Amino acid sequence: MPQLFRFFTRHSTTLFFPMALILYDFTAYLSTDMIQPGIIHVVRDFNANVNLAPASVSLYMAGGMALQWLLGPLSDRIGRRPVLITGALIFTLACFATLFATSMEQYLLARFIQGTSICFIATVGYVTVQEAFGQTKAIKLMAIITSIVLIAPIIGPLVGAALMQFTHWKVLFGMLAVMGLIAWLGLLFSMPETIKKTDQPFSATAVVNDFKNVFRNRIFLTGVTTISLSYIPMMSWVAVSPVILIDDGGLTPSEFAWMQVPVFGAVILANIVVAKFVKDPSSPAFIWRAIPFQLTGLITLIAGNLLMPHVWLWSILGTSLYAFGVGLIFPTLFRLTLFSNDLPKGTVSASLNIVVLSTCAACIEVARWLYFNLGGRIPFHLLALISGFLVVWCLAKLLKRIQDRDNMLAVNIENS
Residue 180 is part of which domain span? Predict the structure, then answer.
């Protein structure tokens, strides 16, 4: 028993904490992905309009934005550990609450609360990983975490579709609640504290000043814009693909689930490449090599659907190619943006996530409007194409500003 205790203590930060965080993150992803094949059944179960189906994702994203302003500064002052542990408990209770929903409004409210898990994971959990490890190790560890977590969009729809053949969709949320409880217990016993608590009071003025300082940083602004635009094609696909493939395409929930495998499998493959084979993932040369994959995928979306408008497989192929390109550089973009200044990282991460999630939530609604009101897949995919070309422009500016900053620091060191 003493040896087991010493082993747990020695490896709690390097092994058990990442495992608990992965389970929490994995379960949060599953809360969207596992129910997506049955979202049309949820809507019909509550006698609601099918147009509300994508709102399950957009409200989840809105929930992920709601507490960012609070959690980042709060974790900078009272510590990362109590904030993340509380978030895991809130998510677990919200999953249990879904079991008692009797209307679409109640279901969407529960989804909103479940979405706050994004606040805790991205603003506190990921920042703890970045603070506990050096740059290269943190980037590769985040790639590993992302690879494992993104199995959820692959197996989630498959498991959800299979389970809904013989059980009610609410049972899925009961399973998620149990998984969330296990993750909460894991964090409770293994999460390290990476900051020293300060006597600085939690005041509105101090919080506002911290956020102002973050948004005055040009590297941060360019980085967060690049990340936000990179998310748009993927998140809009997650939200609207059930309507495209099931409601309009005639696929069964199981067939829909299999169609998501190449999309999220591409992200996992990209993260494996980064974690196992890339020596310096922050190298500009490597970052630029990922861009052709993204642009090829986006062009395939438009060209394929124009040439063969009745073959929706072009949407799968194009989105998969784009996903591979994004997966190669996303951990690096997050790291570069997070460490764009010397301000408290909880506040920086909160600022980043506020912009990214609000952009995603808004663009999901725009994508939904384009699909339902302007003629289907072509207008819908044009949004992704425009976002992709803007990513290239913003990425060039981001790398230039980082290079200028590093050159200036080198000159100052020489002069001193």
Answer: 7-190+202-415
Whole-number average pLDDT of the chain = 84
Asked whether residue 195 is assigned to any structural domain, the reply reads no
Report if residue 1 sits inside a domain. Answer: no
pLDDT surpassing 60 at residue 280: yes
pLDDT in tens, 209-256: 888 999 999 999 999 999 999 989 988 888 788 777 887 777 787 787
Whether the per-residue pLDDT at 85 is higher than 60: the answer is yes
Q: Is residue 145 part of a domain?
A: yes
More confident site: 416 or 178? 178
Which of 138, 121, 119, 129 lies closest to 194 in space, CA to CA?
A: 129
Q: What is the pLDDT of residue 311?
A: 60
Which tokens hold the place of 114?
A: 């479940």
C-alpha angle 51-357-122 in degrees, rounded to nearest 5: 130
CB-based contacts of 303, cutoff 8 Å, min separation 6: 314
Q: How many domains does the chain fold into?
A: 1
Whether 410 is in a domain gets the answer: yes
Whole-angstrom distance, CA of residue 238 vs CA of residue 55: 11
> Is the predicted pLDDT of residue 414 greater than 80, yes or no?
no
* CATH code at position 149: 1.20.1250.20
Segment 351-374 mean pLDDT = 83
Looking at mean pLDDT, say which of 15-19, 112-116, 301-305 comes out highest. 112-116
Contacts with 43 (C-beta within 8 Å, 6 or more apart), sequence order: 49, 50, 52, 53, 104
